[in-house]
């Protein structure tokens, strides 16, 4: 697989100068990968680019593996786990397994939220951990950022030069479980503050402590809270199923509060109501703008009759799908309990007049096992769906009836590596920073330049330029190479040039950006003034 994604120019160079790179397109039903013989989290490397992204393996391959050309868009996911070679960020990847973007540089732990429409334009959402709560705790504290198509944090119309979407009036920052941008340019987020309450009825202390999760809607422009809903004000712990006194649920103390409710998704509807999911209560709550609970679906006090196959437990990622359907990820298990043979992505029909819920379709995992935490279900415009299997490091596509089409993994099943949610999204990115490159000269009269541009989605080819010391700003075209992987090698067999530069081209042959000029000794300077970007701006 070493040469599977490299251009002809690169291949000729590598045949005479083998290196250490193991950058690769996805494997196809690689049994050594699945068994762990390649390690718990196989990864790619490059000759020059300082990244080691996860290596995908199609455990259930598509017909044209590894291309998976029937898929439109990019995989977006954020692996977390101790065995990862590259940690702390989220990925945008081509369906063939090659990396497009790694969201580094924002903080020690970054979760890629997906694509949102904000002020009429597509933005990436990311969550950044502030470090006050360790992520393995099952919740977090931090803030959300919106990035534009150039990966710049969205500017704010004030003295603050970037927008952090975090909580308002609470003692903790925004939690990792939810970010939802509304059509009114507001943000829906979760938070997990600790509050004191009497837990004697549940085997705890009269002076006990719970995680009291909050659903909050924030005006992004001002940072003001529009809506705040605290679980303990509306839902008694007696409604819920997570026992007090487990390592996974907490002991009800100030330093280890009881996670009785565990809010993990919120959606605001066009009628102003909010759909709130409680994993530990096995319930979806419909709440009005005053905070009143209009109905409960599932759990001990369900207002609906749950027909065969429609029950769910320990669920994630609840979303309305029109006026009479909703989807969710039914874990059916936790670290301490298993309710069903394997987890599923569910599409449910509900009737809020007859107050019934029925199963429309279910999506089963490739390996028929339980996901004890996390998970997501996304519906595509053609009726297919993408399921992220959470604590099981898999992503799969399913047809309208739920039949699985393909399944890919980004780590070994038993590795403990997870992605909270996983998506397939359209995205166009053109970074504001210039492309990166490294110049090497393994042989006399033979220069190899490695080029990459983290986050750029429009590149189809690279062009190599050279300039001489006496005329450093006059560049001469030396070579071209198609882009087939994150990093591309360009080879010039000749001499006489002191500085080298690359330009990224799109499918129309237009120039998207120039890199800086770089010499063999690492000396750099900016592009020449007479070098013109010919591609039209994105916005």
Describe this structure in words.
Residues 1-23 form the signal peptide. It comes from Lentinula boryana. This is ASST-domain-containing protein. The protein is mainly β and 539 residues long. It has helices at 8-16, 31-35, and strands at 27-28, 57-60, 74-80, 91-93, 99-102, 110-118, 121-129, 142-147, 179-181, 186-191, 194-197, 208-211, 214-219, 225-230, 263-268, 274-278, 283-287, 293-297, 305-306, 316-320, 325-330, 344-351, 356-363, 376-379, 385-388, 394-398, 404-409, 418-425, 436-443, 446-452, 461-468, 471-482, 488-492, 499-505, 511-514, 517-519, 524-525. The strands form nine sheets. Strands 1-2-27-26-25-24 form a six-stranded mixed β-sheet. Strands 31, 32, 34, 35, 36 and 37 form a six-stranded antiparallel β-sheet that branches. The longest helix has 9 residues, at 8-16. The protein is elongated, with a radius of gyration of 25 Å. The two termini are 38 Å apart.
């Amino acid at each position: 697989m070493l040469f599977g994604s490299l251009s002809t120019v690169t291949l000729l160079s590598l045949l005479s100068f083998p290196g250490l790179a193991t950058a690769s397109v996805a494997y196809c039903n690689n049994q050594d990968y699945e068994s762990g013989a390649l390690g718990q989290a196989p990864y790619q490397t490059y000759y020059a680019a300082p990244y080691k992204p996860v290596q995908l393996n199609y455990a259930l391959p598509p017909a044209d593996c590894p291309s998976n050309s029937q898929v439109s868009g990019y995989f977006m996911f954020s692996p977390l786990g101790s065995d990862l070679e590259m940690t702390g960020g989220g990925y945008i990847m081509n369906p063939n397994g090659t990396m497009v973007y790694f969201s580094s540089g924002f903080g020690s732990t970054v979760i890629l939220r997906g694509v949102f429409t904000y002020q009429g334009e597509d933005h990436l959402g990311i969550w950044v951990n502030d470090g006050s709560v360790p992520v393995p705790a099952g919740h977090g504290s931090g803030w959300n950022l919106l990035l534009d198509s150039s990966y710049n944090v969205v500017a704010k119309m004030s003295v603050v030069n970037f927008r952090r979407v975090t909580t308002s009036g609470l003692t903790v920052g925004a939690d990792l479980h939810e970010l939802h941008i509304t059509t009114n340019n507001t943000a829906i987020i979760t938070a997990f503050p600790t509050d004191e309450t009497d837990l004697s009825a549940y085997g705890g202390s009269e002076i006990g402590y719970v995680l009291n999760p909050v659903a909050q809607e924030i005006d992004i422009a001002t940072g003001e809270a529009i809506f705040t809903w605290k679980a303990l004000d509306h839902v008694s712990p007696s409604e819920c199923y997570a026992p007090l006194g487990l390592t996974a649920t907490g002991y009800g103390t100030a330093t280890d509060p009881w996670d009785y409710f565990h809010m993990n998704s919120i959606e605001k509807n066009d009628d102003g109501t909010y759909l709130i999911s409680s994993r530990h209560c096995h319930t979806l709550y419909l709440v009005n703008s005053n905070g009143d609970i209009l109905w409960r679906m599932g759990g001990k006090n369900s207002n609906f009759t749950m027909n065969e196959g429609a029950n769910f437990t320990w669920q994630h990622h609840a979303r309305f799908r029109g006026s009479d359907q909703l989807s969710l990820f039914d874990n059916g298990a936790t670290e301490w309990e298993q309710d069903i043979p394997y987890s599923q992505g569910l599409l449910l029909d509900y009737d809020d007049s007859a107050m019934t819920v029925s199963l429309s379709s279910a999506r089963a995992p490739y390996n028929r096992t339980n996901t004890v935490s996390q998970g997501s279900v996304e519906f595509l415009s053609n009726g297919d769906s993408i399921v992220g299997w959470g604590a099981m490091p898999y992503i799969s596509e399913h047809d309208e009836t739920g039949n699985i089409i393909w399944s890919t993994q980004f780590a070994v099943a038993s590795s403990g590596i997870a992605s909270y949610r996983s998506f397939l999204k359209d995205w166009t990115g053109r970074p504001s920073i210039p492309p990166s490159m490294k110049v090497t000269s393994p042989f006399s009269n033979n220069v190899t330049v490695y080029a990459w541009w983290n986050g750029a989605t429009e590149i189809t080819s690279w062009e190599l330029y050279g300039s001489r010391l006496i005329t450093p700003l006059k560049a001469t075209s030396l070579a071209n190479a198609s882009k087939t992987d994150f990093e591309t090698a360009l080879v010039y067999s000749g001499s006489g040039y002191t500085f080298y530069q690359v330009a990224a081209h799109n499918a129309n042959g237009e120039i998207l950006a120039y890199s800086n000029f770089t010499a063999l000794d690492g000396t750099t300077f900016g592009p020449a003034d007479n070098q013109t970007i010919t591609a039209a701006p994105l916005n």
